[in-house]
Amino acid sequence: MRDLRKDLRQYIDLRRGLGYKLRKHEARLTEFIAYLEAKFTDRITTKLAIAWATQSSNGHKHSCFERLSFVRSFATLMSSMDARTEIPPAGAVRRPEIALRPYIYTRDEIARLMAAARNLFSPQKLRCHTYYHLVGLLATTGMRSGEAVRLANSDVNLAEGLITIRESKFGKSRVVPLHPTTVNSLAEYKVRRDVFLKKAEAPTFFINEHAGQSAAHTRAFVISVAQLGCRRRAMEFVPGCTI
Description:
With 243 residues, the chain is mainly α. The protein has helices spanning 4-17, 25-38, 46-56, 61-78, 107-118, 127-141, 145-149, 180-197, 219-228, and strands spanning 103-104, 156-157, 162-165, 174-177, 241-242.
């Protein structure tokens, strides 16, 4: 029988070598291969792919479509190595009509969010400042929240007014210029942060009150957004927000 697990490893290595992160693909496709093994086959077929996608997703449209798209991509590569491979057609599972949409915050909402961040519960008097400056940085640069919280100390060059974002989407890096007012604000945060650390090392520029990497989305911050009325539902803050 063909070693599909070895083929999957090669597929994942190839795609990641091209810059794709594939956060879910490996785990989901490993589950799919286990499903095929349970059916005593080493061949990808449309029937089995659809059966696995719909069965594993418990009927959830988004999950079903996503799972089958993973198989389609893997099967496309496999078809060049194994002529028995069937590539599930694009319309085999209908794309969900409801999709996550970015929410663009207004100037007033940004100001209110920053004010709310200032008032976050901070036992060590640092958390509120971390979120205040984090939101401010997102608003002035357009960075992704994940990019901001992953910034290392060496990535923030306040002397030159530049931030280096490393290996972001598709594995690409870029340099983001900072407005002078943003530089001054981040410098103030750094002084406060360094006093808190007492010469200890921190993994990232933005830290929590345990000297670890700050989280981009926390329950406290989501609640603050809801209380301000910036969005209809608090949990909508988590995916696809733009400020």
